[in-house]
Amino acid sequence: MKVPEGCAICESTWGNYWEEVEGQRMFFCCEICAVQFKNMIAEVKSRTGWQSIGEIKIRGDYRGREVTALRDDGSAYKFLIRFGSKGEVQKFSPMKDRQEFVNADLGTRKDNSARTGTKN
Ligand SMILES: [Zn+2]
């Protein structure tokens, strides 16, 4: 899995906390960021049904992060996430836009998230 440089959550380059996530040794600035990251990955997997995630892109800060999860086939899943003080997922909002499941229109749509919006 490709993750942001530095700490996989906040991109800090200071700190020295390593943890294995998804079979990959990853750098985090601190234990809380590692907990956040693992909770986030678990949330994405359960919502998308993806077996693995190819890349994680993160923008924003502790007040809220905009994340794009990419699968190896190019499918993208975008969401907003905010963590609680113990690293738990406090808020998770999938972003419904055109980039979501970008390659999913080829007949292999695998969308386990509830699509409640109306079709345009
Ligand atoms: Zn961090």
Descriptive report:
With 120 residues, the chain is of the alpha+beta class. It has a domain at 17-94. It has 1 helix and 6 strands. The strands form 2 sheets. It has a 4-stranded antiparallel β-sheet with strand order 3-4-5-6, with helices on one face. The model is unreliable at 99-110 (pLDDT under 50). Zinc ion is lined by residues 7, 9-10, 12, 28-30, 33.
What are the key terms here?
single chain, 120 residues, alpha+beta, 4-stranded antiparallel beta sheet, two-stranded antiparallel ribbon, 1 helix, binds zinc ion
Q: What would the average pLDDT be, to the nearest integer?
A: 85
Strand order of the largest sheet: 3-4-5-6
- The backbone outline, from C-alpha atoms, is globular
User: Terminal Cα separation, in Å?
Assistant: 34 Å
Q: Stretches where pLDDT falls below 50 for ≥5 residues?
A: 99-110
Q: Tell how many strands the DSSP assignment holds.
A: 6
Secondary-structure element pattern, one letter each: EEHEEEE
* Helix/sheet category: alpha+beta
- Catalogue the ligands: zinc ion
Number of separate helices = 1
CA-atom Rg in angstroms: 15 Å
Largest sheet: 4 strands, antiparallel
Offer a concise description of the structure.
This protein has 120 residues and is of the alpha+beta class. The chain has one helix at 31-48, and strands at residues 17-21, 24-28, 55-61, 64-70, 76-83, 89-94.
Produce the secondary structure layout.
Blueprint: E1 17-21, E2 24-28, H1 31-48, E3 55-61, E4 64-70, E5 76-83, E6 89-94
Antiparallel strand pairs: 1-2, 3-4, 4-5, 5-6
